[in-house]
Amino acid sequence: MIDNRDMDAVFQALSNESRRRMLDIVKEEPGIGVGALASTFDVSRIAVMKHLAVLEDAGLLISEKDGRTRRLYFNAAPIQMIHDRWTTEYSAYWAGEMTRIKYLAEAKADDAAHKHPQRRK
């Protein structure tokens, strides 16, 4: 089970929009180099490195040296441990179904908005 200090570190890491975006990128591009990741942000490389340190300290990122490149990988385990703390097998199933319905409804609304844009007055 995840202890409170570890959980606090995960929530703190996820509280920042830039760090969440970094995780999204790393999840989509496993093994991306730090330099390539940093180039997608409009902040200094030092700022990116500070964000990466927070994500690594929370266990959400794993880094691996590959020559001169540091490769990054997303680690979902800390998030799963938090999820497991407050859900049961039964509630996890229904929460998943509700999330699926939410995404379907949002996609349908988005499609409808693109097919029938409102006219301006």
In CATH's first tier, which class of the largest domain applies? Mainly Alpha
The quaternary structure here is single chain
Shape summary: globular
Helical stretch tally: 6
Q: What summary fits the major beta sheet?
A: 3 strands, antiparallel
Sequence of secondary-structure elements: HHEHHEEHH
Helices and strands in order:
Elements: H1 4-14, H2 17-28, E1 32-33, H3 34-38, H4 45-57, E2 61-66, E3 69-74, H5 77-86, H6 89-115
Antiparallel strand pairs: 1-3, 2-3
Describe the structure.
With 121 residues, the chain is mainly alpha-helical. It has helices at 4-14, 17-28, 34-38, 45-57, 77-86, 89-115, and strands at residues 32-33, 61-66, 69-74. It folds into two domains: 4-77, Arc Repressor Mutant, subunit A (Orthogonal Bundle), CATH 1.10.10.10; 87-121. It has six helices and three strands; from the N terminus they run ααβααββαα. It has a three-stranded antiparallel sheet with strand order 1-3-2. The N and C termini lie far apart (57 Å).
Task: Give a quick rundown of the structure.
This protein is mostly helical. It has helices spanning 4-14, 17-28, 34-38, 45-57, 77-86, 89-115, and strands at residues 32-33, 61-66, 69-74. It is 64% helix and 12% strand.
Main attributes?
2 domains; 121 residues; Arc Repressor Mutant, subunit A; three-stranded antiparallel β-sheet; mainly alpha; 12% strand
